[in-house]
Structures are given as C-alpha cells and as structure tokens.
Amino acid sequence: MTDGRVQPPSTLLGPGDDAAVVAAPDGRVVASTDVLVEGVHFRLDWSTPEQVGRKSVAVNLADVVAMGAVPTAVLVGLACPPGTPVAVAEGLMAGMWEEARLAGAGVVGGDMVTAKELVISVTALGHLDGLDPVTRSGARQGDLLAYCGRLGWAAAGLAVLGRGFRSPVAVVGAQRVPEPPYAAGAQAARAGATSMIDISDGLLADLGHVAEASGVGLDVRSKSLEVHQRLLDVASALGADPLHWMLTGGEDHALAATFPGAEAVPEGWTVIGSVVAGPGVTVDGRPYEGAAGWEHWRRD
C-alpha cells in the first residue's frame, strides 16, 4: 500500500526501495514505454492533471495489451518546470494510480526531475500468462480483421477542442482520457489471434504496420464500421466526415487483430475486413485517398 493506494498481487515489492519487484508468472515480461510532452501530446488548458495522468498510463498499457498480455505495473518518470504547482503533480499521480487500478496494474516506482517543460515518461509492464505474444507479423491471407474499442471518438474530441468548444462531453472526454479495452488483448490471444496492434495513430496507419510486418494486404469494409450517432451529430455540426475520423483518427487506443476464422473472433469484437494478398491497406478494395493517420516522422 502507498498513501492509501493498494497495489495488485503482482506487485511483490512496491515503492520505497531502489527498485520494485513485480511478479512474472511464466518468466517473461512484456515491456513498453512512451513519452508525453506538454503542448504536443496534452494541454493542461484542455485537460485536468488527473486526466493527463490517466491518459499517460492508458496509452502505455494499451501497447502491452496489444501483445496479448495482462498489465501488471507502470513506472513513471516526471519532468516538471520549477514553478509547477504541487497540485498539478499530485493530480497527475492521482490519475496515474486510477488508470493503473482500472487495468489491474500498480504504480511501482519512478523518478521526478526539474526541466524546462512538463514531460511524462511511462514504462508499462505485463505478463503473458503462459500464452505466446501476439505480434504484428502473424496475419495470413484469409484471416478476418476485427477491432475492439472505440474508433474516431478522440479525433472528434480533438476537432471540438480545436474549435474552442468543450462539449459534447462524450467526445471531448475521449480525447482527454482514452479507454483501451484492457481485457480484450488477452481475450484475443486466448482465442487464437494471429496478429494484433494498438490503434494509436489511426486505424489505416496502424493496419499498415501489420500489413508490412506480415507481408500481406488488409482490406477494410467501410460498411462494417458502424458510425455512432454522437459522431454523426458532431461531424454534422463541424462539417466533417465521421467515417474519416474512424479510419484515420488516432488516440482512441482500440485494438485491431486478425483471426483465422469467424468462430475465433471473440465476443465484443467487430469484424471489419479481411487479410488479402498484399501489399498495403485498402478500403473497399481501393487505396484510401488522403493521409491514413498520424505520421511521427513525416517528411514534407
């Protein structure tokens, strides 16, 4: 227990020593790390410190889950300008603990330093529970493509916030705090998923990584993507295309996976396409016009 916060059973030794000790039931640890920079990945005039803290943990644990693993722990590196209010740091930590709790993980340690800008680095850990990791490279022609989670909501929220609005709360909240389907990764692994990925940069962009790693093509059927009425309403108000948000919008951290047949697709997953002869990703059999999603190292 730390300041009244209870660690999960996987935490054998929590904060207070030089390092934590986290259980690895089958001797393997799934690890991932991400860095969030104020003004690039979050804005404190758009989100509370608690929301930023939750988001920083969620985006990292989603990567662990996308390997078919069960989240166990997070380590946090926090760099703050000297004038940062204590309430901001406390809010960030409260949000991190809350999101870790939702995923069944614990915050087991970290470090804090001063810096010119607010930067959050989170390392997420998980275990495979005796299963093989589900990588990006296992998709095979004839597999079905499915997803679990939300698509397009965070992009809609970003569009709303970018216009200076703070509602509808549902889509704005999706941008502030993603909701990865934490249990779905291990569920897909147990069901025999052949490949899987966290949708962080946009459905088409991230499916492109699977296509490249697997040496196949992926075709998305647009009619299989059911557009929620809330997205339709927001898109109508902003003069935007809600399907574009679902295909290319990032930061929802849903999961996309391929399965060897319809009987293997778990409950809660939606089939949206298939694995075809490569290369690349298509929509309804044709290349998608425009950017497929966020490109971290785009060359203009």
From TrEMBL:
<dbReference type="Pfam" id="PF02769">
    <property type="entry name" value="AIRS_C"/>
</dbReference>
<feature type="binding site">
    <location>
        <position position="18"/>
    </location>
    <ligand>
        <name>Mg(2+) 3</name>
    </ligand>
</feature>
<feature type="binding site">
    <location>
        <position position="34"/>
    </location>
    <ligand>
        <name>Mg(2+) 1</name>
    </ligand>
</feature>
<feature type="binding site">
    <location>
        <position position="200"/>
    </location>
    <ligand>
        <name>ATP</name>
    </ligand>
</feature>
<dbReference type="GO" id="GO:0009030">
    <property type="term" value="F:thiamine-phosphate kinase activity"/>
</dbReference>
<keyword id="KW-0460">Magnesium</keyword>
<keyword id="KW-0808">Transferase</keyword>
<feature type="binding site">
    <location>
        <position position="18"/>
    </location>
    <ligand>
        <name>Mg(2+) 4</name>
    </ligand>
</feature>
<keyword id="KW-0418">Kinase</keyword>
<dbReference type="GO" id="GO:0005524">
    <property type="term" value="F:ATP binding"/>
</dbReference>
<feature type="binding site">
    <location>
        <position position="198"/>
    </location>
    <ligand>
        <name>Mg(2+) 3</name>
    </ligand>
</feature>
<protein>
    <recommendedName>
        <fullName>Thiamine-monophosphate kinase</fullName>
        <ecNumber>2.7.4.16</ecNumber>
    </recommendedName>
</protein>
<dbReference type="GO" id="GO:0009229">
    <property type="term" value="P:thiamine diphosphate biosynthetic process"/>
</dbReference>
<feature type="binding site">
    <location>
        <position position="111"/>
    </location>
    <ligand>
        <name>Mg(2+) 1</name>
    </ligand>
</feature>
<feature type="binding site">
    <location>
        <position position="201"/>
    </location>
    <ligand>
        <name>Mg(2+) 5</name>
    </ligand>
</feature>
<feature type="binding site">
    <location>
        <position position="33"/>
    </location>
    <ligand>
        <name>Mg(2+) 1</name>
    </ligand>
</feature>
<keyword id="KW-0067">ATP-binding</keyword>
<comment type="pathway">
    <text>Cofactor biosynthesis; thiamine diphosphate biosynthesis; thiamine diphosphate from thiamine phosphate: step 1/1.</text>
</comment>
<dbReference type="GO" id="GO:0000287">
    <property type="term" value="F:magnesium ion binding"/>
</dbReference>
<feature type="binding site">
    <location>
        <position position="63"/>
    </location>
    <ligand>
        <name>Mg(2+) 3</name>
    </ligand>
</feature>
<feature type="binding site">
    <location>
        <position position="251"/>
    </location>
    <ligand>
        <name>substrate</name>
    </ligand>
</feature>
<feature type="binding site">
    <location>
        <position position="136"/>
    </location>
    <ligand>
        <name>ATP</name>
    </ligand>
</feature>
<dbReference type="GO" id="GO:0009228">
    <property type="term" value="P:thiamine biosynthetic process"/>
</dbReference>
<dbReference type="InterPro" id="IPR016188">
    <property type="entry name" value="PurM-like_N"/>
</dbReference>
<keyword id="KW-0479">Metal-binding</keyword>
<keyword id="KW-0784">Thiamine biosynthesis</keyword>
<feature type="domain" description="PurM-like C-terminal">
    <location>
        <begin position="141"/>
        <end position="283"/>
    </location>
</feature>
<feature type="binding site">
    <location>
        <position position="34"/>
    </location>
    <ligand>
        <name>Mg(2+) 2</name>
    </ligand>
</feature>
<feature type="binding site">
    <location>
        <position position="63"/>
    </location>
    <ligand>
        <name>Mg(2+) 2</name>
    </ligand>
</feature>
<feature type="binding site">
    <location>
        <position position="41"/>
    </location>
    <ligand>
        <name>substrate</name>
    </ligand>
</feature>
<dbReference type="InterPro" id="IPR036921">
    <property type="entry name" value="PurM-like_N_sf"/>
</dbReference>
<dbReference type="Pfam" id="PF00586">
    <property type="entry name" value="AIRS"/>
</dbReference>
<comment type="function">
    <text>Catalyzes the ATP-dependent phosphorylation of thiamine-monophosphate (TMP) to form thiamine-pyrophosphate (TPP), the active form of vitamin B1.</text>
</comment>
<dbReference type="InterPro" id="IPR036676">
    <property type="entry name" value="PurM-like_C_sf"/>
</dbReference>
<feature type="binding site">
    <location>
        <begin position="110"/>
        <end position="111"/>
    </location>
    <ligand>
        <name>ATP</name>
    </ligand>
</feature>
<dbReference type="InterPro" id="IPR010918">
    <property type="entry name" value="PurM-like_C_dom"/>
</dbReference>
<dbReference type="InterPro" id="IPR006283">
    <property type="entry name" value="ThiL-like"/>
</dbReference>
<feature type="binding site">
    <location>
        <position position="32"/>
    </location>
    <ligand>
        <name>Mg(2+) 4</name>
    </ligand>
</feature>
<feature type="binding site">
    <location>
        <position position="63"/>
    </location>
    <ligand>
        <name>Mg(2+) 4</name>
    </ligand>
</feature>
<comment type="similarity">
    <text>Belongs to the thiamine-monophosphate kinase family.</text>
</comment>
<feature type="binding site">
    <location>
        <position position="294"/>
    </location>
    <ligand>
        <name>substrate</name>
    </ligand>
</feature>
<feature type="domain" description="PurM-like N-terminal">
    <location>
        <begin position="16"/>
        <end position="127"/>
    </location>
</feature>
